[in-house]
User: Fold this.
Amino acid sequence: MLKAIIFDVDGTLAETEEVHRKAFNLAFKTCALPWNWNRALYQQLLQVAGGKERIRYFIDQYDVESVPVGNPDRFIHEIHREKTACYARMVANGEVVFRPGVRQLISDAIERGYRLAIATTTSLTNVNALLQSAYGSEYSGIFEVICAGDAVTRKKPAPDIYLLALEMLDLPAEDCLAIEDSRNGLLSSTRAGIATVITPSIYTSDQCFDEAVLITERGRTWQIPCRPKDRAGIGAKFHP
Ligand code: XBP
Ligand code: MG
Assistant:
């Protein structure tokens, strides 16, 4: 029986990755680093989930020399802390809005009694900034469980963040539905045993989503399937 919907954040609740990319580039400038991630490079770097992990991958692939001798982790954490501050400022300035239909889907789900959760690789600071921007101060009552960023060591595509959400919801995977935008997210949720709907985003439309139970197409309305045994399954409309 469908009891809970677990939402991914970046690319699913909102098209955030262009603002993340701008925040990374602003942080590189503030940290006096000669780096600039354009869209083509960022598309490639997005294969690595997690901002700190993405910076480390970039350094390993392209620019080891810029890393000061000593503690590379501290160097990466400092850059990422600056990036997160830049991102939060841009979200607070209204540069990120929910994707069309998301707000309606969330209110339909709440009205039908579904429990809501978040399972995301992004930092908890970023989740709170987005929900505050979307709902104002009363956002804390909307998602019963929020699992984000460093709450787990192994990030997507590992299942850990979704397994943590199931544990905190105290529900089995078969009572939940995940909504994701990327292959990393799909692998993470399905490895946790959760049926997953995919709504491709600007950086993921060319990825493989074979394991999804439903893939939305931009501009079309679709309904979350009422699985045969879920007579009361949500029939919300979501304009991906
Ligand atoms: C997408 C990610 C995140 C963001 C950047 O998360 O992989 O790393 O790109 O955010 P989601 P941080 O699981 O919501 O799609 O810099 O905070 O990691
Ligand atoms: Mg995502």
